[in-house]
Specification:
The complex is a heterodimer of chains A (442) and B (498).
Chain A (H helix, E strand, L loop, with lengths): L8 H10 L30 H13 L9 E2 L12 H7 L2 H4 L11 H18 L3 E2 L6 H16 L3 E5 L4 H14 L2 E5 L1 E2 L2 E2 L9 E6 L9 H11 L2 E6 L17 E5 L15 E5 L12 E5 L5 E5 L6 H4 L12 H38 L5 E2 L8 E5 L4 H10 L2 E2 L2 E2 L1 H4 L3 E5 L6 H14 L2
Parallel strand pairs in A: 1-15, 3-4, 3-7, 7-8, 8-9
Antiparallel strand pairs in A: 2-10, 5-6, 9-10, 11-12, 13-14, 14-17, 16-17
Helix pairs in contact in A: 3-10, 5-10, 6-7, 10-13
Chain B lengths: L66 H12 L22 H7 L2 H4 L11 H18 L3 E3 L5 H18 L6 E5 L5 H8 L3 E5 L9 H7 L4 E6 L12 H10 L3 E6 L11 H4 L3 E4 L1 H4 L14 E3 L11 E4 L5 E4 L15 H36 L16 E4 L1 H7 L3 H10 L6 E2 L8 E4 L7 H16 L2 H5 L12 H6 L10
Parallel strand pairs in B: 2-3, 2-4, 4-5, 5-6
Antiparallel strand pairs in B: 1-7, 6-7, 8-9, 10-12, 11-12
The chains are: A alpha/beta (442), B alpha/beta (498).
Chain lengths: 442, 498
């Protein structure tokens, strides 16, 4: 159909004449004849707008969305939080949505200032001094943190906690094929990572709270990092930071995380938001874009992407990161949501998640046959074992109207199930969930 | 000035030129906007929820602002921002075309947006079908066999492609050491090569602006893992010798990687697969109208030929004999490259764009993009230098080299003056092989009237006074920004100000 090409037939003729051409095919004279696609693309012709939306709706209807019909208790790196109307209406204004990377700062102050505010908010949350303008997701933030640590220490080995999200660990392993980084896996025992103390790694990478929901001992990890001259990399939960000490409080060198809980719906896993903050010592190794404050020719406050010499398009083959496009729009949404929550609201959000988690956990553990995977303290997520496998529990619970959790798979025991409770869950929903759970595990 | 200029944004509603205060200056202790669901849960205190050693004493300081002030703040920020919806954005290589609004609505459908990525396959058949269909559509457009949708951006797609090369060669006994890249390549290419564990070997461009095939042959040996090419290249020129290049690279056992940054130029005209490429990444945020979001999110799927399909990242949605989709990881997969399934909602936007355009519409996209670029290139002949003045594809490179020598008018000055004229600037100082480069990509969604206005503006700028241009822009929310100071006295957060 080509509804989005504005040219009339008469204009096309007029333009071709200006070029001394008589057909559109002539435009492609430099494409060798033998490579030309005869007969066009093997695809259906274009649809009208309503027909396109109908087709998309038919696909959407074949999913079971989280909501009243499928109450979500699944987390594992993707959380069912409220996205306030303010975020939807303001962060997704078309000026933000349809802007490009702010290469011309004079006409990009909107995006630049929003990112500057995002960087400030992320530093306040993590207890760090510098944050970049975002990375792709939690996994990519971990990859970049490791790249930074290897570059900073000149060491190749990284201690990787088994408590780090297993999908993120798979991504780390994938990219290690190119960088040659060597990961030493560190067991989680009773919910908490056990570190070997006989290696000199570039870094320790630990998640707080970890994938199983447990609160890791960051002070011990910091001690080991000090002893071995390694960096401490912490993948934190930004919601937990409303109630827990910041990773900076425990002496983290780099803090990464998944920013989806602030302003991004579940979205089938993306686009999400890679959070990345670090101590100022490492700013020259910071991956991705960084916005800084400066002044314009009239001396007025202005913002601009800065320390550009770190970036891939300048450093080319000497770069330690190839990040170019990031997740700016999602970072803006995160900033809007954080500001909307505010200082007290963020704390309340965290408290509400923790209350729901405690209530749900206690009720589930009262069921005969449901056991905790560990007795370590948890915040907003916890793992249980049941007499039937996690996959089967999830399948049966879906029939009862619940997305019961994320099955833990082989690594942590096949009967394990990871259950997450956000501020959206009411007592009634939780009570019904527990009743259904008791029924289906039999 | 023509009053009818469609893409011109001199009427932007900027109420004044005062700086917008930050969120932190607008804060007032005790103010808040947050609102929570009534849950009926026990109101345990923080001390009853978290052990002491972990419990934060004071709340993390965020901002304290009313919803009204918050909305006003971000609305005012949005008025200090140029965007495609406001006017033309002839930013070379970035493909800043208009993004159809229906794609926004398609990606906002609750049945897509509210789906958990770890939900069992039985509950997400619609998503899996969408992803599988998109994989197939992208394969048809590129002439490839199979695809992964996981890479969340072009650079991630590049690195994925290089790891596919590495896995392929490793299985044949030697990962090899070198990747060949033209001197006109995007900076991400060499950076990705390094992260892929390879060394970059640069091949020069010849007088035509194309890969120097003789020089390429000198660089090819059995230690070359492959070559990365953009076609059309960053000068906007089609690599006419691509078949010969492909044969030469394949002869030494190397693979060809297609950087899809410029794929929009050849939609429905020719396909990377037909040119002999083995691996193709696409920038859905360029070619398939996913809006750029001020710098992302994008999506960078990678499609490959049949022999490389077993190495693709996984899991991928595969249609079973029972008519249901299941997740499968290819047998020799390099592993996951994203936390979940890629930038899914961006993928849904691209899929809706492909459905709406269809095979016929995509060809029209390429035709109009190439027509627009050549019209503007011809319009500017004799006004700016055109270092490779031959028919271009979707973009072309001009230069102010002569204007700089004559009166000191540089590419940067042209960029800043164009902002005053109500247009976004072109890409400047890239590709690196052109002095004072202006890389211009009008895209297919700009009308002839917009091109005329843009051409007139560029002519005025070239004819104008250079001293005057050094002071541009004057009509924008801020004037030229002191970038050196930003780097010298780094202020990366509000709290790091003195």
């Amino acid at each position: 159909m080509g509804h989005y090409v504005p040219h009339t037939d008469a204009e096309i003729v007029q333009m071709l004449t200006f070029l001394g051409m008589s057909s559109l095919d002539e435009l492609f004279a430099s494409v060798p004849e033998v490579l030309r696609l005869a007969g066009g693309l093997d695809m259906a012709d274009g649809l009208s707008e309503p027909d396109t939306l109908d087709a998309m709706e038919r696909l959407a209807e074949r999913n079971r969305r989280a909501g009243r019909e499928l109450v979500c208790f699944a987390g594992g790196g993707a959380y069912d939080h409220e996205v306030p109307s303010t975020v939807r209406r303001v962060a997704f204004r078309s000026e933000f949505v349809t802007a490009y990377t702010p290469y011309q700062p004079e006409v990009a102050q909107g995006v630049l200032q929003a990112l500057f505010e995002y960087q400030t908010l992320l530093c306040r949350l993590t207890g760090m001094e510098v944050a970049n303008a975002s990375l792709y997701d939690g996994a990519s933030a971990c990859v970049e943190a490791v790249n930074l640590a290897v570059s900073a220490t000149g060491r190749q080995t990284v201690l990787l906690s088994d408590g780090v999200n297993p999908n993120w660990r798979q991504v780390l392993e994938t990219f290690a094929a190119g960088t040659g980084h060597d990961y030493i896996r560190c067991d989680v025992v009773n919910g908490v990572t056990r570190w070997p103390d006989d290696v000199q790694p570039a870094a320790l990478l630990v998640q707080y709270p970890n994938y199983l929901g447990c609160l890791e001992d960051l002070a011990a990890a910091r001690q080991l990092a000090d002893k071995t001259g390694a960096l401490l990399l912490v993948a934190f939960d930004p919601v937990a930071a409303g109630l827990l000490h910041s990773p900076g409080h425990f002496g983290a060198d780099v803090v990464v995380g998944e920013g989806q809980p602030f302003g991004t719906p579940l979205s089938f896993g993306g686009p999400y938001l890679g959070l990345f903050a670090c101590k100022r010592d490492h700013v020259r190794r910071l991956p991705g874009r960084l916005v800084g404050e400066t002044v314009d020719a009239d001396g007025r406050r202005a913002y601009v992407t800065t320390l550009r010499t770190r970036e891939q398009d300048i450093r080319r083959e000497k770069a330690s990161s190839n990040v170019c496009t990031n997740q700016t729009l999602i970072a803006v949404a995160c900033a809007v949501q954080l500001a909307w929550l505010g200082t007290e609201g963020l704390r309340e959000l965290a408290v509400r998640c923790a209350r729901g988690t405690r209530y749900t956990r206690e009720a589930l553990l009262a069921i005969d046959g449901v056991e905790p995977l560990s007795d370590a303290a948890v915040f907003r997520e916890f793992a249980v074992t049941t007499p039937t496998s996690g996959d089967v529990v999830v399948e049966r619970m879906a029939e009862e109207g619940f997305l019961a959790g994320v099955p833990l798979g082989d690594e942590y025991g096949e009967r394990g199930l990871l259950i997450s409770v956000t501020e959206r869950r009411t007592r009634d929903e939780i009570d019904a969930f527990v009743a259904a759970f008791e029924k289906v595990i039999r | 000035m023509s009053p009818s200029a469609g893409g011109r944004a001199t009427s932007a509603p900027i109420m004044g030129r005062d700086a917008e205060p930050t969120l932190f200056e607008l804060s007032s202790p005790g103010r808040r906007a947050a609102s929570f669901r009534t849950t009926g849960l026990p109101e345990w205190e923080p001390e009853e929820l978290v052990p002491g050693g972990h419990l934060r004493g004071e709340p993390a300081p965020i901002a304290e602002i009313s919803e009204r002030d918050l909305v006003a703040h971000f609305t005012r920020l949005s008025h200090r921002q140029y965007s495609v919806d406001l006017g033309a954005y002839p930013l070379g290589s970035c493909t800043m075309k208009y993004n159809p609004k229906l794609c926004d609505d398609a990606a906002s459908l609750p049945g897509l947006a509210d789906v958990h990525p770890a939900a069992p396959a039985a509950l997400t058949q619609g998503w899996m079908e969408l992803l599988a269909e998109l994989e197939q559509a992208l394969c048809r457009v590129t002439g490839m066999h199979a695809a992964t949708l996981q890479p969340p951006a072009g650079a991630a797609g590049e690195l994925t492609g290089l790891l596919l090369m590495r896995a392929w060669h490793t299985e044949r006994g030697n990962p090899r050491h070198k990747i060949v890249i033209p001197d006109s390549a995007h900076g991400t290419n060499p950076a990705s090569v390094t992260l892929g564990g390879y060394e970059t070997v640069t091949v020069p461009s010849d007088h035509r602006g194309l890969v120097d095939v003789a020089a390429l042959r000198e660089r090819l040996d059995d230690d070359v893992a492959g070559i990365m090419l953009t076609n059309p290249n960053t000068l906007g020129l089609f690599e006419e010798d691509i078949a010969e290049i492909a044969a030469a690279v394949h002869e030494v056992g190397g693979l060809l990687y297609y950087d899809g940054a410029n794929l929009n130029a050849i939609l429905g005209v020719t396909r990377p697969g037909d040119m002999g490429f083995d691996i193709v990444h696409m920038n859905l945020h360029k070619t398939f109208a996913v809006p750029h979001g001020g710098g992302g999110p994008g999506a960078g799927p990678v499609a490959v030929s049949e022999r490389l399909a077993p190495y693709l990242p996984g899991p991928r949605p595969v249609l079973g004999d029972d008519g249901a989709y299941a997740w499968q990881t290819p047998s020799k997969s390099i592993g996951r490259v994203h936390s979940w399934h890629g930038n899914a909602l961006a993928l849904a936007r691209a899929y809706s764009y492909i459905l709406a355009n269809g095979g016929d519409g995509l060809r029209r996209v390429a035709e109009a993009a190439v027509l627009n670029a050549n019209w503007l290139r011809t319009r500017l002949r004799g006004i700016y230098d055109l270092p490779y003045d031959r028919p271009a594809m979707h973009e072309f490179v001009a230069s102010t080299s002569t204007l700089k020598k004559g009166k000191g008018l540089r590419a940067l000055d042209v960029a800043k003056r164009l902002l005053e004229e109500g247009f976004h600037a072109p890409t400047v100082y890239f590709p690196l092989i052109v002095d004072e480069a202006l890389m211009i990509e009008p895209t297919e969604t700009e009308s002839l009237q917009t091109l005329e206005a843009l051409g007139d503006a560029l002519e005025r700028i070239a004819a104008g006074d250079a001293d005057n241009a050094h002071h541009a822009p004057r009509t924008t929310p801020v004037r030229r920004v002191d970038e050196a100071r930003a780097a010298r006295q780094l202020i990366p957060t509000w709290d790091s100000r003195e």
